[in-house]
Amino acid sequence: MQHFHNALKVAERILKVVEAHSFQISKKESISISIGAETYPNICSNPQQILHQADEALYKSKHLGKNQVYPAKTSSPNES
User: Fold this and answer.
1) What is the pLDDT of residue 80?
2) 41 preceded by a cis bond (ω within 30 of 0)
């Protein structure tokens, strides 16, 4: 399970770097990211499943308000 917690920490660092960076798009638009985190073999039973689980977590993150990390095998975002 340590790999999963490490993956969440890396994803949170990426999120914070993107939040802190000033992207030159327009004065009205801002950048946000959503991240679905998953690891193999700790959580997923096969390598193909990791993409499916991470993709589901990504869409849960977007549905819950974007700009956050959602761990694939937990019931709430930003859990570590």
Assistant:
1) 39
2) yes
